[in-house]
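Friendly challenge for the regulars: who can give me the structure tokens for this chain first? No prize, just bragging rights.
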Amino acid sequence: MARYTDSVCQQCRREGIKLYLKGSRCESPKCAIERRDAPPGMHNRRGKQSEYGVRLREKQKLKRFYGVLERQFRRYFALASRSTENTGEVLLSILERRLDNVIHRIGFAPSRASARQLVGHGHVLVNGKHCNVASILLKAGDTVAIKSRPGSVQLVKLNQQSHPQPIPDFLEIVGAEPPEGRLTRLPTRQDVDPRLTKEKELHENLIIEFCSR
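First reply, four minutes later:
Bragging rights claimed.
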């Protein structure tokens, strides 16, 4: 499985906003963008961005926030383009339906990277079956549960106690021993993680324009 191995804090500094890639660390004074709010690298000039640059940064911001690589993102865009509904909203819905995102937003992991680790290490069941692919897309009615092993349950309960967070409307907790949640419906534009639009508004139309070139 391909993954980004460089410093994720550089991604936040490059985009100029917090992408919350390190869980609780991003809310602390140790956050890199709080300590040095400047793009990484030695030679940086803050000139006026071109129209291409504005659209590229929007695409990179969304892609990095959800922790997907370029090939994955292009595949999701192609899937959204085939829909008869608004392409931008469908793209956001697809990203919200990823297994790692669902595990994070339902409170089982402090970040999407931690959620991917939970899945990859075999702690997760989807509809009662073992799953180690963090990128699968869930459907309405699908359940996500933690295996009933002491180590697996302890990991999730520790996060729920130390990093409580509100659960979005399209998800619900249906079991506590072991922790289990359900995707009650497909997420919409209003269900997008509010931290993505906390500092700067998300313009998915610019992303669609960039990917449609």
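The mean pLDDT is 83. The first helix runs from residue 8 to 15. Your move, everyone else.
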